[in-house]
Amino acid sequence: MNKDLDYYLSLDYPIESYSGENEIGDAYLVQYIDFDIKAASEDYDEAVLLAKEYLKKHLEKQLKLNNPIPKPKEGIRFMEHRTALEAYKNKDFKKAHDIWIEEAKFKNDQAMANLGLMYLKGEGVEKDYTKAKEFFENASSYDNDSANFNLALMYQTKIGVEEDISKAIDYYRRAVRKNHVQAAFRLALILLKDRTNLDGVKEGFYCMLKAAKAGHVMATVQLTGVDKPLVEEAELNEFFRAKDLETQLEIINDALERFIRPILKKDGGNIILIDYINEPDIELRLAYQGACVGCSIASTGTYEMIRNTIEQIIDKKVRIYVL
After folding, report:
1. Where are the alpha helices (DSSP H) in the chain?
2. CA distance 232 to 115
3. What is the SS3 assignment for 284?
């Protein structure tokens, strides 16, 4: 990708905002944490727009001068941060540690998260879970996805803390919101343990699908159908597709009840429709219950049975995911 002005303006550079008062009334100060760029106004939205305009002018100038530009959340002192990363890759842990300690004073949350990892692993420092947790918590206050993931991992696997699955779930969720793939996979595994909790299964399914689509190998193994492309050149069942969502759901649930569930129930299993999407393409998300969960036969033979059934009542241009 050509890293021009439009590219940098498309990046999600984080901002901090501060509110206060002046002689007229409320006042707002907005600052980009990766640049020495501030804007103030009595209206918050106007302050943000002003800051964006100042950012655009700054980026234009830096590009003309061919100067390096930070990635989102690298911080104002981003060149120091990059020097630390290079030192870390070369296993010069002391240099990386010393730079990141200084960067943490400048609210560089990724430096905080990296320090947490160093103390967690004992890289260049004595392994110290308490210090690791403190650095992760400081970075988490800036919603750093790596810090949230590692805090979740600590609470899930009892690394330096008592096991607390509720806290683990909370931190995993925060990381998933920032598209952390490993967090999505681990959260899915936790939520899918109880397949009688439909809300949990639905969220777990979403996380597993998110991880699989991002290329997580184990997620693609768990989720049958994710590797199957949508059949584009299919003859469409316009009669079915013209029906409203409620009617389509009735037809699909009837097919599942008559043709699929009786076979699964004979072996102590079941299947539930987690979600149904009919725009822009038709997509079914199904989850096994009971004896079918984790069964290799269910993930292959049963999938084909489900797919054949759905294709007969709709058409071949349908995505079907089964977990």
Report:
1. 5-10, 44-64, 78-89, 93-104, 109-121, 129-140, 145-157, 165-177, 181-191, 198-213, 217-222, 238-241, 245-255, 261-265, 296-297, 303-313
2. 49
3. strand
> DSSP character for 237?
-
**For 211-245, how does the pLDDT look when each residue is reduced to its tens digit (9 = 90+)?**
999 999 999 999 999 988 889 888 999 999 999 99
pLDDT digits (tens, 9 = 90+) for 165-188: 999 999 999 999 999 999 999 999
Q: Which of 309, 261, 319, 310 is nearest to 285 (CA)?
A: 319
Q: For the whole model, what pTM was predicted?
A: 0.81
For residues 113, 118, 119, 120, the Cα torsion angle rounded to the nearest 10 degrees is 80
Residue type, 26: D
Sheet order of strands, 318-322 included? 269-277, 282-290, 318-322
Could you tell me the sign of the dihedral formed by the alpha carbons of 212, 215, 218, 222, in that order?
positive
Distance, CA of 234 to chain centre: 33
> In b/e form, how buried is each residue of 164-184, taking b as 16+ CB within 10 angstroms?
eeebbbebbbbbbeeebbbbb
Which two tokens mark 312? Answer: 């007969």
DSSP of 80-124: HHHHHHHHHHTT-HHHHHHHHHHHHTTT-HHHHHHHHHHHHHTSS
For 81, residues 6+ apart whose C-beta sits below 8 A from its C-beta are: 74, 75, 99, 100, 103, 108, 110, 111
